[in-house]
Amino acid sequence: MALLGLLAAGCAELSYYAGSISGHGALLAARQPIGWLVSDPATPERLRDRLEYASSARDFASRALGLPDNGSYRTYADLGRRHVAWAVVATPEFSLTPRSWCFPVAGCVAYRGYFEEAEALRFAEGLRAGGQDVHVGGVAAYSTLGWFDDPLPSGAVEWPDAELAGLIFHELAHQVAYVRDDTAFNEAFAVTVEEEGVRRWLAARGAGDAVRAFEQSRERRRAFLGEVFAARGRLAGVYASGAPPEAMRREKAAVFADLHAACGRLALTEWERARYRRWCSEAPNNARVAAISTYHELVPAFRALLERQGGDLPAFYRAVRELARLPREERRVRLVGDGAVLLHRGERQAHPAAVVGHVGLEPLHERLVAQAGVETGRVVEPGGGALALGLVEEDGGGDRDVERRDHARERDEHGRVGQRQGLLAHPQELGAEQ
What we know:
Layout: H1 2-7, H2 10-29, E1 31-33, H3 34-39, H4 45-65, E2 75-77, E3 85-91, E4 100-103, E5 107-109, E6 112-114, H5 117-129, E7 133-139, E8 152-153, H6 161-173, H7 183-204, H8 208-239, H9 245-265, H10 270-275, H11 277-281, H12 286-296, H13 299-308, H14 313-324, H15 328-336, E9 341-342, E10 348-349, H16 352-358, H17 366-372, E11 380-382
Parallel strand pairs: 2-8, 4-11
Antiparallel strand pairs: 1-2, 3-6, 3-7, 4-5, 9-10
Helix pairs in contact: 4-6, 6-7, 7-8, 7-12, 7-13, 8-9, 8-12, 8-16, 16-17
């Protein structure tokens, strides 16, 4: 089936997949065991310190967080560049629904990724010429969901301590539970594990100041997300208004001007300002809003689920895997609780318009979204091929995650729910530049 899918892809797709396979192969070939590098006297002291930190966080992930104990992130790959790959996200001019690319085996993903930046930019320019809102971002790291021993790329090791540990926890979480065609579910689950894992990691190290600094950084992130989701609610109203295109363009420009100004007023650290610089220095667009929303739409609901399990991570993982087995609509309703969802500012809200306006990226429930008058359609393009490579970036949401995965439904020894046969790459926190 995989071979037939690949042959059916056509010349352009064959070239695309050949580049994906070549890029991934080069990454695997560059792997070096972290333990060996740490013990090698020729390793620069700064790199040795960062690798020792990453190794300790990796051990903690399996020992204390119940994440898979395998070869992932126990090797290092010096790529000589900041990003391992680049990803493209696109939306129609008057929609917040990200465009999808579908593959016979891997399913549909809301981005398309490349190992060569020039190819990503060329593809993005074609979409932009067709009237799409487009966002291109670099990917610092990705996960193959345990089917390969993924390395820690050189572009990620200089991240701040909490961010580096969080990256490892996030990527490993995708090996615990993964659902085909539901990026928002997968990423929000991984973000929840990431944030809870970092809290426990810093507390275990007795780093009280670091714990406080991390919580303050989460507060600043919530402030940033609050501005993004408020703008998203305004845009949803504009696009559902039925106004003439020129009127909608004026309203859209005004919303994004306000969001750009609000980003500039946020009290961010130097690291955070660098991470979100494209939001604060350039005009945002639908694609960036859609990208960052993917990672955070459902995080409050996952946090509530973890709390209902008494903070017991293994119990939380079991509950998530049970949700993963449900049909998409039932899964979403069960997760958020009859249409009510915890919003990013902490309150509960059951009114469908408020839910969609403040949080929504993908439908929480078709009926609720329809009542809110928000477009739920998805533009789908046949991608062809057995291997789906889609990488997305870090620009207010995430530049560090591309997952590749075989797809044919099964559970493995870690209890993963997923598919085999074919690579699936997807973004972590779409929208941030690191």
